[in-house]
Amino acid sequence: MRILLLEHPREASEAHFNDIANTPLWSCLMTGYAGASLVRAGFETDIVDAARWTSAQTVQRLVDHPSPDILAIHAVYCWEGTESLFQMLSDLRSQRFQAPICLYGFFPGLVWKEILDYSGAVDYVIVGEPEETMVDLTRCIEAGIDVQVEGVALRSCGKTSFPRIRVPIEAPDRLAFPLRPSLDTEQTVSILASRGCYNHCSFCLVPTLDQGKTMWRGRSPENVAAEISELVCLGKKDFYFVDPNFVGPGKAGKETAARLARELADLGITFGMETRANDITYGLMRELASAGLTRLLLGIESGRPDVLKRLGKHTSIAGNEQAIATVREAGLEPEIGFIMFDAASTLDDIVQNLKFLQRNRLLDRLGRTANLLYHDHVAFKGTPGYETALQRKMLLPQGLFGFEGLLLYQDFRVGWLAGLMKRICHFLLKEMGKPTSPVYWVEETAQNEPYRTANAQLVEIFERMLGFAKKLNRPPDANWTQGLLYRLMDEIERTFRGICAQQAPHVQKKQSKANRNHEGAKRPC
User: Fold this and answer.
1) Domain boundary residue among 310, 339, 368?
2) Helices (H), strands (E): how many in the chain?
3) Going by C-beta distance under 8 Å and a sequence separation of 6 or more, which residues neighbour residue 286?
């Protein structure tokens, strides 16, 4: 039996190019873990990463090579481009591709029935963690017997059928280290030290993978260190823990994280991680920093107690502020997960969010500011936030299978401000992605021009538009709002032109000096 695991083409979304919420970060290792489990079970396994290919290129690759016995696809929700995945599968079948097709991942696990009803090209959908389920499914297909596997949805007698969810893997140490076919090209290597989360935030997809049946499950520090040691021997020195929550619950969770820090301390690596604010202590931060921690994202989400409660965060404003201060005391500058706009937000919520960010000195760097001032609550089918908003008629299902929820703001002024700021921040973030831009992100520092000027201008625009929103007594005309948006973008562009004009003599002088220093030097081949 030969199984081909496919990372399908990912179409970039114009509206959501900066949103990564469509699948949890740790899903990047799903295919590697599933492949390792299949190899351990004795099955020939290939991985094809077609994420940057076109659908046509992917179909051609699959039909030009010997057909596998099973094609398993890590299906990711790609916003408005999701339907192209199913069109690709239909095109593949039209090329007489006969192998069973199985989908796995967060997205198909939540809408397995809709997928099986919609696409005749799909034979199976794995619901939940894929490793052991995929092995059992492969064994059934190899033996030619009916598939009745825990965690596998399929068609039976013309109807969709899902026997039952498989109990999630309680001891991740028993899994083989994930396959990494693209390791040579990875500068930062993804590592998963735990699965699940002990909290159930209303917007989070992580608990939906196992239907909310389990909590945080960590690998032993020794097991994690052994995997990283192998990768260090292969020349890798920088890592990112893609755990939904790096630190486990309570005192035991912090002790396990500290033990892992001590295991990593002698490896000479750097790493990043994400965790909840209530997991932060000064002692733990010092241990992690000493072991090589250089990047940390805290899920703060809001500067209002009632909003934190609504989001199911189980944290406090004071605790969040203390966590930020503690991270800084340990010598790190935290990145922040934040939901500026929610369907039930009031203008006072927005005011307090802004004050929270300013009070904690979180709006002093352009890249971070442009992220914090626009993010709204992204609601996906299966999450508590989606279901609650749908019941309260504050959400309109959209996208394929209604997987994505369009927020219907209770206060039209908040919705107007949210839409305007998303466009402005996206405009700035795209500018930061251009190597020719005066605010190219690679060279950003909080103290240097032009980033400081652009950052101050963005905050001023937010404050100005917030003040304007307070005066609205009815929704503005769409054409008028579009005109306002163009004027604000023109303000930013004029600032960029002024910065470039000021920099030009300095840049020319710098280039002239560089040319003199390299006169007579040979050009590199």
Assistant:
1) 339
2) 17, 17
3) 330
